[in-house]
Design a protein that fits this description.
It is built from 9 helices and 9 strands. With 243 residues, it is an alpha/beta fold. It is an enzyme of class 5 (isomerase).
């Protein structure tokens, strides 16, 4: 959700609010991604929509991959927890592609934000992102070794994202032992030129994606610590699945 969207509630806020209300009393959880950074605006939006989860996805680094001061992000998430203790916080953690992963501060960033987060979600860092200042929707895969190290280090569940599709999500989950999986680009519909169409899901792809995630969960084993963590009350997006 952008500031333009939030700034015109009479035109477009109600459909989103209705979607949030539709999931109440069901097994489905909703999440809100604010694509703006003003704390007061974030708190007002959360108070209005009251989602199950708020998902923060700032890049957390500069374009060269150096960490930026996390103090503001920690402050916002901490204050959000004080005001809305019933709402969970998902924090995207940047993970570069395999060819770029040497020395990238994924684990250090996660350690700084773990205490004020309920879930981590990996996403692909490129340096030049499709939406400036935020990671995601690249269609590129993350370094699985780094993602696996994040899963091992974290005391909170880690959702695997970044270039996942029905064709690679099984192996990715087996490799990383993540608590769930998220897909955007590769479960979208395609236009006439074969390019993914944002915000339009191909439900057949989503169905296959979910089936592969469930298969991975069974392969890992219902008695594992990972699968036990997956049964916690976690957010489920359009293509986000917890095993």
């Amino acid at each position: 959700m952008t500031t333009t969207y939030w700034g015109h509630p009479h035109k477009c806020a109600m459909p989103l609010k209705e979607v949030c209300l539709m999931t109440n009393g069901t097994g489905v959880k909703n999440s809100l991604i604010p694509l703006f950074k003003e704390p007061d605006v974030i708190y007002k939006a959360v108070d209005y929509y009251h989602p199950h989860f708020v998902h923060f996805c700032e890049t957390l680094t500069d374009k060269k991959g150096a960490r930026i001061n996390p103090a503001l992000f920690i402050q916002v998430q901490s204050e959000l927890k004080k005001r809305f203790p019933e709402i969970g916080i998902i924090r995207s953690i940047p993970v570069p592609p395999k060819v770029l992963s040497g020395g990238f501060p994924t684990l250090e960033i996660a350690a700084e934000l773990e205490a004020v987060s309920d879930l981590f979600l990996t996403d692909t860092w490129l340096g030049e992102e499709p939406v400036e200042g935020y990671i995601g929707i690249t269609g590129k895969t993350v370094d699985r070794r780094m993602a696996g190290r994040l899963v091992s280090q974290s005391r909170i569940p880690v959702i695997l994202a970044g270039g996942l599709s029905p064709f690679n999500v099984y192996d990715a989950l087996i490799d990383t032992r993540a608590a769930g999986a998220d897909s955007c680009t590769h479960t979208n519909m395609l236009d006439g030129n074969g390019n993914p169409v944002r915000f339009k899901k191909d439900f057949a792809k989503v169905q296959r994606f979910v089936a592969e995630v469930r298969r991975a969960g069974e392969a890992i084993g219902a008695g594992s610590d990972v699968c036990k963590a997956n049964r916690s009350d976690c957010a489920l997006g359009a293509s986000e699945v917890h095993m």
